Prior knowledge:
364 residues; mainly beta; five-stranded mixed β-sheet; disordered C terminus
Amino acid sequence: QFVWIPAKTGLGTIVHTSKGDITMVYKRTAFRGENIETTYTETMPSDEETSVNANGGYYIGRYETGDKESTDANTMRKNDTSTSNTVTIKKGQAPYNYVTYDEQKSLAEGMKEKRGYNATTKLSSSYAWDTAISFIQIKNEDYGTTSEEGNYYNTEFYYSNLGEEQRNQKKEKYEAILVPTGQTTPVCNIYDMGGNGSETTTERSDDLEYPVTERGGYCGTACSNTPAGFRIASSGDAYDNSAFRVALYLKSETPNEKSEISLDLGSSINLVDTPYINVEIVSHPEYLNEEQVYTLYYKIASSDNYSILKTDSTSPIPLSFEYFINYEIYDFYVECTDKYGRKIQSKVYNVEVYIEHSGGGSTG
């Protein structure tokens, strides 16, 4: 799961529109006064610059990267856990620690092929990290310098262990423990940019022995000393409190493609896309009659509840509409009932959902 950060390069300041929309400046920031000219350095990657300017922003992982196989086994990673396990960006995952900088970079970049994204996935750069913090600070102005919402040595909260749904474990104050992803307090629907695991970025340090830059502190440090904006030089070796976050960049050239996904009654699709989608629900002609009611439900993937997006009882189909999805991850669910509200069996009802991209390209 990713969160959209609206941004462009070359802006003098954050742009606010009359509709309340904002555009961040895609840039690096020294939240704690670090020297980001010589001590910590990074040149803006050209593919990031091209993408954010063409698409008006980028996505950053909602959570620290997780390990699917370890999560499925209800165990946190160990120093001998495979470094080729599947990358996940979801709540309640075992953080993907005990991997080197090179392995983190490879895992992040390989995610697009394994998930079929029509986009570029990367280990977060300092530009992606700092712009996301600046975005968060519009609502939480000290997040870059305090970030007490995270999992730190001096914070306390309830959390769920792997395999558990209820937050019945208490992380005590002055206890250092790495917890599954998404257990702390989110800010702008983003978790743990401060705390839990110390997250590697592509920014470089001038220390030859410790050339890698990590951000945000970890569970054994204090939130005031190592907040989300914190930088520290690292060796890039694999260790227990290391972590990383994936950033996703849409293709700069957007094909107006039309992809087809088949849905049976009771099934759903998961979509990460750009702002507008066009959906058509069609049914086989022999199943059409004026007493059928077609309903499209949707929900943000992080929510528990579906809402009705569109209902249509007219014939003939298709039922079509355009909807602004606000750069979120949505689940769609299609249901067919008779005029009395009784569900029609899936063996008789087969729909196809066409997603026509109006800009930005599909990312999965």
